[in-house]
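Issue: ligand-bound run for iron/sulfur cluster - logging full I/O for the record.

Environment: standard queue, default settings, no custom constraints.

Inputs:
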Amino acid sequence: MESLSNRKKVVSDKKMTFVESLYLPAIFSGMSKSFKHMFNKPATVRYPEQEREFAPVYRGMHVLKRDEQGRENCTACGLCAVACPAEAITMKAAERQPGEEHLYREEKYAETYEINMLRCIFCGLCEEACPKEAVFLTDRIVPTNFERQPFVYGKDKLVEPVDQRVDITNRQHTGKRGNK
Ligand code: SF4
Ligand code: SF4
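Outputs:
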């Protein structure tokens, strides 16, 4: 009887030839394909001994920058948090007290500043929104963890150490925030 869809296939039950029944041609054909791949350039690298070079525009873990005198640039204005599409940034502002001028550049500073790295999509909009050149994305990778809580990064992980500055020259390209 004719099928309605006409997609019916007639399966051949043709007997194998003597050579086919030895399976040798099929085995050699498969082995030759494997052998050919032995001379191709491998697509993988031997990480961590070998590392891939990142693209100059790669966006990784954030840094909160200090100025030349070691003072924190961030003034806790909240623009980065407003710009963040993932709502990954939270902060609490505080007023700079007399005698703290060497710690904070502006009269207001971030008492706490947190980025949830599990929410972050590394879009870089916080960096674009910051009027104080305080937050930048770097080429550093966010380390893995088995727990969720350690992915909430506070100032202890985000503010750059005074004696170990994080290079962000790649991020300060021309045309950004009118730096032409
Ligand atoms: S990189 Fe994007 S998602 Fe991540 S904190 Fe900044 S604005 Fe939010
Ligand atoms: S990082 Fe920049 S945008 Fe975000 S609160 Fe600090 S000064 Fe404002």
